[in-house]
Write a structure and sequence with these properties.
Elements (H helix, E strand, L loop, with lengths): L4 H21 L13 H26 L1
Helix pairs in contact: 1-2
Amino acid sequence: MIDVRIPIGMLFTAIGLILAIFGAVSDRAIYQRSLGININLGWGIPLLVFGVVMLLLGRRSSRKI
């Protein structure tokens, strides 16, 4: 049986990775409208962490069966 945490973890990991990379390599001038806050990096890292945690929890539960 497929654990729902695995596809959710894959989705959040992919989106978080894309946002974090874009936020890290993008030009700082585009964040002037948002008071200099790099929202892509700021949300990419938590999404990436959440996705990795979901993947780890899904893999851990699938090993017990």
